[in-house]
Amino acid sequence: VQLQASGGGLVQAGGSLKLSCVASGRAFPYVVMAWFRQIPGEEREFVAGINWSGGNKYLADSVKRRFTISRDSTKNTGYLQMNSLKLEDTAVYYCAAGSFGLDNMDIWGQGTQVTVSS
User: Fold this and answer.
1) Distant-in-sequence contacts of 38-47, Cβ < 8 A, 24+ apart
2) Confidence at 55, pLDDT banded by 50, 70, 90
């Protein structure tokens, strides 16, 4: 399985973007899909995660009430809807998948750049 992230871009503060993460293959073999982000020189941080079968969702405090995570299991695709974007949301966003929960991801997508301008 490979993950392909897309949807990043340049947006003004207050705007919205929707990221997608497509998993190759016939079925999604992992328990969770998650989004992380990283600013150069800083550690990668958790943004959001979703249980693939049950749909339970988890969001970092910094993005609650602004970001929404979802998935379409028929398309093997996860989404991150980002609203009310702030300058500090600027980062490379990575999707990832894991077999045992959000603490340990097994595979990572290639990242997509999100830049929020003033």
Assistant:
1) 38/91, 38/92, 38/94, 38/111, 39/90, 39/91, 39/92, 44/94, 46/102, 47/80, 47/93
2) confident
